[in-house]
Amino acid sequence: MANRLLPEWHPQDAIQLTWPSPTSDWAPLLERIEATMESIVVAVARYQSVVISVPSTATRHHLQRRFACLGVAAERLRLVVAQSDDTWARDHGPIGILRDGELHLLDFVFTGWGGKFEATRDNTLTRRLAETSLFACPVESRELVLEGGAIESDGEGTLLTTEACLLNPNRNPQLDRNAVEAMLQEAFGVERVLWLTSGHLEGDDTDSHVDTLARFCDSETIAYVRCDDPTDPHYAALTAMENELAAFRRADGRPYRLIPLPWPRPCFDPVDGHRLPATYANFVIINGAVLVPTYADAADSRALAALATAFPAHDIVPIDCLSVIRQHGSLHCLTMQLPRGSLATLT
What we know:
The protein is an alpha/beta fold and about 350 residues long.
């Protein structure tokens, strides 16, 4: 059987979100993160559907009323009651593949980024959504510990990832690099793995997820974070990452088209002062648009312009993510795309 890991630009049924619970780590920022997630839903619903798992029936009813007031068409929303630990759908959501041309959703093990945070409910969320008859395609459980934010696919057999995450002993300590590549080959039909050995963001809990650093925009193009401030503590590692990307080659031997993304000024937590992981690489590709995180920074406009060159046929939609980085993620981390054919038809 031939598997193929779908790229993010593959046609989608929906974007999946996990709504924050009032008892989660978002409690001190609940109104702010809910406002940000509302803006994501409104933006996405102009192009496609949104699936939202919510912590209670009361939340479901509230959001139905709220989004009706915001002009979101009811047929663009799927609200499913399913409790979670946190909101990071990118890492606990299913990953879509084609197997002999048929769509399958793979449900990997999620451990809260190597046991850093409680993740029991997040780890079972995909299975519980499947039990509601939400999905039209098979959902398969996998034993590998893997988060969606840790991998990037070009849709043609090449996977981009980081050593710091996939080879971290807090994920799959029994597997070395060769064994990890074999598992990726088996699950995704991967023919090549491009390993980044450098690059990190302060305040990132994920052990350098690639979606905070470098992203496929198409099979020939990679957008990446560039630090242009030699006094910044990120400068050396991100410059080394830039050199690695320049040395990578496509399967046919040609270099990638590289699009540098600007470096916003440092953002710090207002409570304890630690640095937050602001990154423009955490954009989201949907049908006809690219949603881009912004940080009320002068670099925002340059990031939007850079990504417009990468996606000339897409609308470029800014989303204020200053509230999101307070919990050490950004826009892409909150979302998971569900490829076309994922959702069952409403009856």
